[in-house]
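User: I'm putting together a teaching handout on how multi-component assemblies are represented. Below are the sequence lines for each component of a complex, exactly as they appear in our records. Could you produce the 3D structure of the whole assembly as structure tokens, so the students can see both representations side by side? Please keep the chain order the same as the input.
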Amino acid sequence: MSVTRSSRTPGLADRELFRGSTPAVARRLLGAWLVHDEAGERIAGRIVEVEAYLSRADPASHSHGGPTARNASMFLAPGHAYVYRIYGMHHCFNVVTGRKGIGEAVLIRALEPLEGLETMVSRRGRARARELCSGPAKLVQALGIGPRHDGLDLVGGALRIELAAEPIGDVTIRAGPRVGISKAVDLHLRFAIAGDPWLSRP
DNA sequence: GGAATGATGTACT
DNA sequence: GTACATCATTCCG
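Assistant: Of course. Below is the structure of the complete assembly, with chains in the same order as your input.
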């Protein structure tokens, strides 16, 4: 199976990447790679779409009501994973961002599939590349992410973020309302690489 | 204890 | 484009 592949060599992200303003971190994550090393195989994709979820003041954020058993991982230090179950049957993957203890995170919504394509296809049960990682629950399934990754440290782990050599330019980023929420629809906290063919929706 | 709801995906019309 | 699967968490009484 042939795929487009970036010639740039990704580099490991350190914890600083995840600190600071969560919308700024969300923008910075576009173009970075999400990588999962498992059983000697490398499954990876390039992040093309994300959403920022802020602290208690953000009514659409899971941390809105304060810490609970479910959202506990959101209050860990930046760079940890927050994995939760949605609609009783899917899981979504977030990276904790901002500052420890405030409950902010970036939801990864879509990837351009780059490595481990065969494994992704077998996990997803469909061969069309466009359907492998074009949605938060799809990419979680394709990369083999699950509830066991909730709360894990992404810095230096088997599941991690790797930075592209050059960040993408701000002009290529589009912002818009977050998907699937009913509150704070006026906030434009969904960020995507403009015109990218791998988005969950245009 | 009970009911509503959800950061979705898939199948089908 | 619309319907529906499916269940933990949350909120209300």
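A couple of points students might notice: Chain A has one domain: 11-193. The mean pLDDT of chain A is 93.
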